[in-house]
Structure formats: structure tokens, C-alpha cells
């Protein structure tokens, strides 16, 4: 079998998972996309293990380790998502902006010009 | 059994294993694409079953039968069930949910396409003339070799991984336990992180 087939399939699966991680809004769908990316890595490990004819099958042992770590990751991740949903009422990662920069939605920070804006006067009065 | 170590297999003479691998790979890729693009959340989990099962078939074609069955047991058996439970517990909408994707979908698509192009180009260029000899069997089952090497050369990482799994289990239990002693004593005023963000 040509080695390009599993390698290209793994690359494409990884990129599909990458798109899902970046584009999805629900946190559980993001976790599903992470699973796709991990599976792409596993496919690479198995393909290269078969290609190299490793006598000890190190690639397959490492694949088992990756599968176990993915299982642990999905357990912890789902527990965190459930906790967030219980505390905030949503699992959408767009709305979890508790740590965002508060000046972000204005989008017009600008350099503070001295004595130019009248808006600064209120702030000066407030601080005075 | 083909002993094809001497003659060079060509691009235009695919074997049956290659054709099967290609077809199953196309099905897997299609299921993965549907998983990340569908607007129905439960359907995404069910298409993920198809994608992971397809990867298990690819493992079988790559003569890694033990990994294939582990894949079926752990991913299809437990991880997808866990994801479905997570969808249920977060009260995910059953039907069509239009806001399943965020607004930066097109940026994500551009990033994914650029990554796919780069990766496929590099990988196809690097392994253009490399063939896997799938029929290189020593008569010994790969499962036996994997098991003996796992418990002979990889035994320390194996044990460390079991400790990691135990820690993850305990962590998940601690995280998802409802704290009865913290929440009820604040009946009138909400705590600081509650009232701030919602």
C-alpha cells in the first residue's frame, strides 16, 4: 500500500478537526473536533508503525497511550463543560467572556490626546 | 500472500487493499466533514461514530487489529456515549440549531484550508515513493508482540498512564459534584461571578 494514502487521510482529518475547533460554538462540538484531531495522529502512528515494520510495535503502543490520554481528556473536558453550564447557564464558548478585556467592544481605544476630547473632562472630574 | 519486495508497485496499479483503504477513507472523511458542519448537535455525535468506525476499519487494513478493536471499544463505545450524555446534560437543542457555528466560520475555513494544503503538499512530496508492505507477516500476531512489548519495554509509561487515568477520574468526580454546602447559604445576593456575566 502506498504510504501517501494514510498520511494524506490523516492530514485531511486533522484539518477537518482544526476547522471544527475554530468554527464551532458549542463546547461539546469543540471536544468532538479535538477527538477527530487525535484520531488523525493515531492513524499516522499506526501507518508509520506498519511501514517501518517495528519489531516491538512501538507505534501501536504509543497509539494505545494516546487513546487513553484522549479518554482522560474527554472525561475532564466534559466535567468542565458541565460545570460551566451549571454556573453560567450556557455551554457556548462565544459567550464565556468573563475574562475578556472590558475595553474590547468599543474597538476605538485611540491614543489619548491631551485636551482634545470633551469626554476626557468627565473622567477628569470623576478622578478629581 | 504476495512477496513483492523486489518489483516496484506503481501508482496506476492499485491493489485491493489500496482501493478498500481509499473508499473507507473517503467515507471517513465525509463523515468527519458532516460532523463539523451539521447544525444538529446529536447528529454530529452520530456522524462521529461513523468517522471513528471508519478509522477502526483503516486500522484493520493496516494490520493493527488490536488497535482497531480498542478504537471500537473506547471511542465508539464510551467516548461517543459520554459526548451524548454531555449534550443531554447541557440541554442541547434536539432539532435544528442555527447558531451551531460561530461568526468566525470563514476565518476558520481559511485556516483549515491553508493547513490542509500545506500538510498534504508536504506529506505527498515527502512520501511520494514510499510503499507499505502490508503482507510482511512474520506469522506472529501483532497483538501478541504489542502486548509483550507493552509490558516489557513500556511498562513504566503504562503505569504512569494508569495513575493519570485515575487522577482524571477523581478530577472529573470532584468537578461534577454538586457542592451542597456552598450554594444554598446565599439566597438573596448572588455571588460575584454569578451576577457579573449573565
From TrEMBL, chain A:
One Pfam match: Oxidored_q2
Protein name as it appears in the record: NADH-quinone oxidoreductase subunit K
Lineage: Bacteria, Bacillati, Actinomycetota, Actinomycetes, Kitasatosporales
Region span, Disordered: 95-128
Superkingdom of the organism of origin: Bacteria
InterPro entries assigned to the protein according to its UniProt record, in alphabetical order: NADH_UbQ_OxRdtase_chain4L/K, NUOK/Mnh_C1-like
A GO CC term attached to the entry: plasma membrane
Record-stated family: Belongs to the complex I subunit 4L family.
PANTHER family linked to this entry: NADH-UBIQUINONE OXIDOREDUCTASE CHAIN 4L, NADH-UBIQUINONE OXIDOREDUCTASE SUBUNIT ND4L
Automatic annotation (TrEMBL), chain B:
Coiled coil: none
Keyword terms, alphabetized: Cell membrane, Membrane, NAD, Quinone, Transmembrane, Transmembrane helix
Matches recorded under Pfam families: Oxidored_q3
Membrane-spanning parts: 19-37, 44-62, 68-94, 106-124, 153-175
Function of the molecule: NDH-1 shuttles electrons from NADH, via FMN and iron-sulfur (Fe-S) centers, to quinones in the respiratory chain. Couples the redox reaction to proton translocation (for every two electrons transferred, four hydrogen ions are translocated across the cytoplasmic membrane), and thus conserves the redox energy in a proton gradient.
Biological classification of the source: Bacteria, Bacillati, Actinomycetota, Actinomycetes, Kitasatosporales
Listed name of the protein: NADH-quinone oxidoreductase subunit J
Record's catalysed reaction(s): a quinone + NADH + 5 H(+)(in) = a quinol + NAD(+) + 4 H(+)(out)
Annotated GO CC locations: plasma membrane
Subcellular location: Cell membrane
GO molecular function, one term: quinone binding
Membership in a protein family: Belongs to the complex I subunit 6 family.
Keyword Transmembrane helix (UniProt): yes
UniProt enzyme class: translocase
UniProt-listed Enzyme Commission number(s): 7.1.1.-
Presence of the UniProt keyword Membrane in the record: yes
Membrane-topology annotation of the record: Multi-pass membrane protein
Amino acid at each position: 500500500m502506498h504510504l501517501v494514502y494514510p498520511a494524506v487521510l490523516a492530514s485531511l482529518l486533522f484539518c477537518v478537526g482544526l476547522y471544527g475547533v475554530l468554527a464551532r460554538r458549542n463546547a461539546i462540538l469543540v471536544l468532538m473536533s479535538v477527538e477527530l484531531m487525535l484520531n488523525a495522529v493515531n492513524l499516522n502512528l499506526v501507518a508509520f508503525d506498519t511501514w517501518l515494520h517495528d519489531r516491538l510495535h512501538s507505534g501501536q503502543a504509543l497509539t494505545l497511550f494516546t487513546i487513553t490520554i484522549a479518554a482522560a481528556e474527554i472525561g475532564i473536558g466534559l466535567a468542565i463543560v458541565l460545570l460551566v453550564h451549571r454556573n453560567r447557564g450556557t455551554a457556548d464558548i462565544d459567550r464565556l467572556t468573563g475574562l475578556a478585556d472590558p475595553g474590547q467592544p468599543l474597538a476605538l481605544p485611540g491614543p489619548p490626546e491631551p485636551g482634545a476630547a470633551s469626554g476626557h473632562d468627565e473622567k477628569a472630574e470623576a478622578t478629581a | 500472500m504476495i512477496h513483492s519486495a523486489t518489483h516496484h508497485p506503481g501508482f496506476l496499479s492499485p491493489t485491493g487493499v489500496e482501493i478498500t483503504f481509499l473508499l473507507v477513507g473517503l467515507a471517513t472523511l465525509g463523515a468527519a466533514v458532516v460532523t463539523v458542519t451539521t447544525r444538529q448537535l446529536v447528529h454530529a455525535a452520530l456522524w462521529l461514530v461513523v468517522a471513528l468506525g471508519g478509522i477502526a476499519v483503516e486500522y484493520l487494513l493496516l494490520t493493527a487489529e488490536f488497535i482497531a478493536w480498542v478504537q471500537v471499544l473506547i471511542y465508539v463505545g464510551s467516548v461517543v456515549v459520554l459526548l451524548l450524555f454531555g449534550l443531554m446534560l447541557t440541554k442541547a437543542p434536539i432539532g435544528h440549531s442555527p447558531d451551531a457555528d460561530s461568526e468566525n466560520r470563514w476565518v476558520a475555513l481559511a485556516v483549515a484550508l491553508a493547513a490542509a494544503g500545506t500538510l498534504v503538499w508536504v506529506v505527498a512530496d515527502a512520501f511520494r515513493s514510499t510503499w507499505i508492505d502490508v503482507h510482511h507477516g512474520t506469522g506472529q500476531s501483532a497483538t501478541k508482540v504489542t502486548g509483550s512489548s507493552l509490558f516489557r519495554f513500556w511498562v513504566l509509561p503504562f503505569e504512569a498512564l494508569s495513575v493519570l487515568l485515575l487522577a482524571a477520574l477523581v478530577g472529573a468526580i470532584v468537578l461534577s459534584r454538586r457542592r451542597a454546602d456552598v450554594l444554598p447559604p446565599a439566597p438573596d445576593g448572588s455571588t460575584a461571578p454569578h451576577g457579573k456575566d449573565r
